Amino acid sequence: MTSPWLSWIQQLQGIAQTGLHYENHPFDTDRYRQVQKIADAMLAAIAGAEPQTLTDLLHQDVGHATPKIDVRGVVFREGKLLLVQESSDGLWALPGGWADIGDSPSRAVEREIFEESGYITRATRLLAVYDRANPRHGHPPAPHHSYKLFFRCEIVEGQPTPSYETTAIDFFGPDGIPPLSPGRNGLSQIQRCFDLLDHPDAPVEFD
Fold it and tell me: Which of 27, 63, 106, 158 sits a CA distance of 20 to 30 A from 100?
């Protein structure tokens, strides 16, 4: 799937979802539902999936369509960066995941770090806000549009403890980064974390 097609499909889905949320006239409702079905069929054809399966997955969200929020914790110890090995693909990532309803962004990243690594941390600074769809980050295509929030966090206590989501926890220097989970973080983002360690007063980076 090429990124322009995915972006177009996501935009159509967003237009349809938002239009249905603000519906005023039955004819408009029918038109937005048609746009929604066309976008679902396009994505299903490209992905080789059943349209109804994708419809059930994508349309759990209602209201004005907005990007999802993915939080990532940047935790250093003695100049090395905390990474976790993901159970799903065996590759490595900054601890993190989707923010939950009711969580503040800082609370969300602290929770994700604890759940995936066993470390209790305190979020101290927002480092970066990235658009997952921006080609410069090298992420593979995804059905949802999302923003990635990177937070610097300090260890308060705890010890490395794998979970059902992670199989290993370790700290890595800039020259020893293991194979990364590309949907979660790219090498340029990891390198940026080390750059910010050396320049703690650098401004927040954003797309």
Answer: 158
**150 with 186, same domain?**
yes
Which two three-digit tokens encode residue 11?
Answer: 């935009």
User: Are 53 and 74 members of one domain?
Assistant: no
If phi > 0 it is left, if psi is from -120 to 50 it is alpha, else beta; for residue 158 that is left
Which runs of consecutive H residues, i.e. helices, occur in 48-103?
A: 51-58
pTM of the prediction?
Answer: 0.73
pLDDT in tens, 141-186: 887 789 999 999 999 999 999 999 999 999 999 999 999 999 999 9
Residue 130 domain-assigned (yes or no): yes
* Alpha carbon 161 to its chain's center: 22
